[in-house]
Specification:
Distance between the termini of chain A: 55 Å
Oligomer: homohexamer
Radius of gyration of chain A: 18 Å
Largest interface: A-B, 33 and 33 residues
CATH topology of one domain in chain A: Macrophage Migration Inhibitory Factor
Number of strands of chain A: 4
Chain lengths: 78, 78, 78, 78, 78, 78
């Protein structure tokens, strides 16, 4: 297959919606869990929001328990 | 059923991970599409990240095509 | 008092930490509630993080109940 | 006290507002400073926004001085 | 020109870095100002970060002066 | 030059718009690339959005390829 051309990307990204999903959670999940999450969450978006799978980006940020609080207490103190 | 007590929430939220998912997309989806997305994305998270469904929050922000750019062009100009 | 000079701002902002606080909540609070929140949250940051009050920025984003979900359900459906 | 039941959390989270506060600052604060910040910022929110303490989540992200710029200069160069 | 094929986008997005730039500012800029900003900011990213222009997304969120505070005061009160 | 006074900063920050730019990208850029990016992106904002350079803050968050997905696949698997 020939290398994709840049103007192809440009054309397509102009036409379609490109949702961005940002997940914030504690560290500790394995790569396999992240792999499964992005696969299944992308399916969920494709089926419900009518966007092609290629258009969805997912970013994961991990925040440790000593930087996440509920009810005025750090999770690491709870 | 008796009203849930606050210390119940406090106790549980201390123990469990509470991932937050933030979706950014163009406006135009119906309430039914959002309803389906949060249901299916929550399932995806529960199955892959091992968190109880009650622990997951999803926030949706809609960004119009004249405030979203790809390749140096506003989507509304593309 | 003379007008502040730009190089003053530039000098100071180089030296100090400038925390940013982003609040996401449902709409419905009055301006007075927001006014009180930014005043008290700034005090909290100044007292605990050792930053001058002028250095702290607070941004508030309001997200409606039909764009916020917990447990797989939109708040507006709960 | 009996273990809290999941439907309790589900019920309560449906009814109440659950503001999220995201703090971005340079690294360098101690755990005690973070601990004090989340306690005092939660008080500030509870008193001014009329939400129960259990409903407020605070996330802290630390961004180093070589990844934060003001006036076109990285803080680490200032 | 034939319609771009989906696998083209998929291939390319796998290979390249796709930075996301999020701008938060007060409302009031014209569409022409936004148009110029996304054009020039994309050039800046392409020249300095070595990414193709098509790979950069820019999102703009407008936050009113009564939802943005500095020094404990809403901008609308200053 | 005398040390800038705090009320100077307070005065100025009340009057001017203070846009915040948040860049998310993969790690791997050198400090020089970041330095050049914040310089050029600030110029772009100053020229197009009519804000003084001192007013613009830029934050950079680096997200590894195993925490960023497109099309349902982690970049590290692509």
């Amino acid at each position: 297959m020939p290398a994709p051309r840049r103007r192809d990307i440009a054309n397509v990204t102009k036409e379609i919606d490109m949702p961005i999903l940002h997940l914030q959670m504690h560290p500790g999940r394995t790569d396999d869990q992240k792999r499964a999450f992005v696969r299944e969450a992308t399916k969920a978006a494709v089926e419900t929001l009518a966007c092609p799978p290629e258009s969805l980006e997912i970013l994961i940020t991990e925040i440790t328990r000593d930087s996440w609080a509920v009810g005025g207490k750090l999770k690491s103190d709870a």
